[in-house]
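Subject: MFS transporter, FSR family, fosmidomycin resistance protein structure
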Amino acid sequence: MTTSENTELAAPVQITAVATLAAISFAHFLNDMIQSLLAAIYPLLKDSFHLDFAQIGLITLAFQVTASLLQPVIGLYTDRWPKPYSLTCGMGITLVGLLLLSMAPTYAVILLGAVLVGLGSAIFHPESSRVARLASGGRYGVAQSVFQVGGNVGSAVGPLLAALIVVPFGQSSLAWFSVAALLGMILLFNVGTWYRHRIPEITAARSDAPLATSVAAIALPNRRIVFALVILTTLIFSKFVYLSSLTSYYTFYLIDRFDVSVQQSQVLLFVFLFAVAAGTVAGGFVGDRYGRKIVIWFSIFGTLPFTLALPYADFYWTVALSMIIGVILASAFSAIVVMGHTLVPTRIGLISGLFFGLAFGIGGLGAAALGILADHTSIAFVFKVCSFLPAVGLLTVFLPNVDGRRKDSTQVLTGTGPGRRRPQP
């Protein structure tokens, strides 16, 4: 019996561990802030190493594909053998990658540093997502949003810090952010200790595991669950390829079309990423209250009118539309993750690693492909092509309505449903 199965039993009746949830969210902030520095300094690296857009895309690919390939494997492994202190190790590997990037003399070393940062991310995300679920008290959407918003804010702050520190002081100033990585290692060690103490408590519930297994699992045929996971994966593709076009090339688009400075473009990237963070928070609360499917439907397909308008907007409307797109599009991911957990409640680590890994990998492949396309056409053309991606959100209609089923399962577990009795010890 896996840890995640017991988690499904304990979660509805436990109290939200606010301090742990806040800690893992802040650690996510530090982790993703460090990672976002890489994309934020692309203009600096392009000039210093005379890179073309395809080489810029390969840097993103080196980082994101490493995370993509390893996250599901790590998640599956920790479903069977939880590793609380792997969180600290992951942040340590990110620290080494950051230091390599700060002193990289060649393009090859830059790629190596990007790979190590990706490896640190692969270790961090599956277990930290599990910790967020353990600390949720049954409010899974809110917990995932709080966890994810830490990463979103970190991703937003990274470009701003790059504009204020890295651009004026050069590539070597990346090493100054090692302090943040060290702080993250200390914080995650404490989180790992909380997690380690939690494992015996969960294991003690194994006598009730058959009940948890029977009511927590969704009463759907396996092929229906697989089909739903394929739909969720396709939606992740649409969402993150479009986000990749903005996070990797938004600064170049603003510089090329509106002739803004590098620092101005990075500040505007911060504004967009901050909007993404706001959307992430909203999505978790709305999903818990009104259902995951509604959030996913509105978040992806509802973005389409704004993405279609963006390539034709003037400077001020470009900034405004990018903020609207960021808020709406970001609201889906926590709902997608929680729906995946609900469909496969016995493989929390695997689903977390798969979805986070897909987000990184698809973003990396998208960045590389879009970079090649930009070299052969233009950045403006890339934004026009990507504007149609949210139309994939129409596939949401094929997702099952699992929220009502989940509510019934929770009632059985807690003995609160109509006509239900709490199982006698």
